[in-house]
Design goal:
This protein is mainly alpha-helical and 428 residues long. 47% of the residues lie in helices and 4% in strands. Among the domains are: 3-39 and 46-100 and 163-226, Bacterial muramidase (Helicase, Ruva Protein, domain 3, Orthogonal Bundle), CATH 1.10.8.350; 265-351, Lysozyme (Orthogonal Bundle); 370-425, no CATH class. It contains 18 helices and six strands. The strands form two sheets. It has a four-stranded antiparallel beta sheet with strand order 4-3-6-5. The protein has a two-stranded antiparallel sheet with strand order 1-2. Strand 5 and strand 6 (321-324) form a beta hairpin. Helix 5 packs parallel to helix 15. The structure holds calcium ion (CA). Calcium ion (CA) binds at residues 229, 231, 233, 235-237, 241, 244.
Length: 428
Amino acid sequence: MHPLHFLPRLRFAQAALALAALAGCASTPPRPVPPSVAPAAVSPTIQPDSDAQALQLGFARWVDGFMASARAAGVDEATLHAAFDGVHYLPRVVELDRAQPEFTRTVWDYLDNTVSPQRIRLGQDKLLQVRAEADAAAARFGVPATILAAIWGMESNYGSNYGNIPTIDALATLGFEGRRADWARGQLMAALQILQNRDIDRAHMVGSWAGAMGQTQFLPSNFLAYAVDADGDGKRDIWGSMADVMASTANFLARSGWQADQPWGTEVQLPPGFDVARADSSVRQPSGQWAAEGVQTMDSTPLPMLPDAELLLPAGARGPAFLVGPNFRAILRYNNSTSYALGVSLLAQRLGNGPAVQAPWPRDLQALTRSQLQALQTALNARGFASGTPDGMMGPATREGIRSFQRSVGLPADGYPDVGLLDTLGVK
Ligand code: CA
């Protein structure tokens, strides 16, 4: 047994009793508990470990404190018992929450995986199976069935993998652990409201280690705000009811600014000599203005009418270009990652028998590791190209710093962090 699993199921009062009974052997070094005096609640074979005891006791105390706040906020006793009688501290959730991967994926690697031929074929089959539910949601909320199916595919591989971690345990662990305690407390309070509403019971309220639930991975706060009971059984069930899954996802996007009469965007080609620094989320204008600057679709048909469009160069100046509008930004509200939003958009396009990306990806470019990006940020800052805090993460400040440097040496100012920049800067 992992030491952190010691006393996993005990609430504070029970844990305190059990630990009091063990007090004689809690001093260091721990001794085995003689079977004759071992408390019934604890196996005599468990070796008490002071760190594990402290952790479990701390967790039990945190849960009791949280329950008091929940009670004060109007959560009833039956719900509190259902939620916390068997609550578990999950060490793996803490490990995953603290993990900061050293290696990042390029956008083409990500899309190879998420918009694979297999994912497209499976999605077309799955879309046939949920056609009625997806079409009903599309008609009611104005979000195409292909977009809903694409989100379903990206979030849980069409419901085949939405996570089996009890949401209450995941959020209680994150709330206790503390790195983002306020956020986790808010989500846990929302999860209790869902249980109290009887939309789902504790045993079936499962999802990812980070608290995202059901087939399209709603956080509890988003569930309260956007989940829809579309099949009329009185429960909002994003785990077992495809009507509810599709309607809830469509409602989320509609309320996040989805425009029923617009596409997500389109792949485009840029004229020779185009200033790639204009591919930035702060530069938005009607597609007519982009057309006037020479931006064209791949087949030279007119650009879609987007009132508020921005250019996207997800792999820098040498890669494909996209013109995206408000619907792309609505997908970003679902998950704030450009790669994710592009994955949803392109998967939906393929599910509707539309084209794949036509321009080649610059597959010879290598993604910077986290420490390489940190070294790049440090070097740029040292040379006066302000790149923000050297944290190994791309953000607007780092993109601007890279652009300034690229301009200073006569490179296209795409702000894309490739390994070649490290050489140009003389960073080893
Ligand atoms: Ca329902």
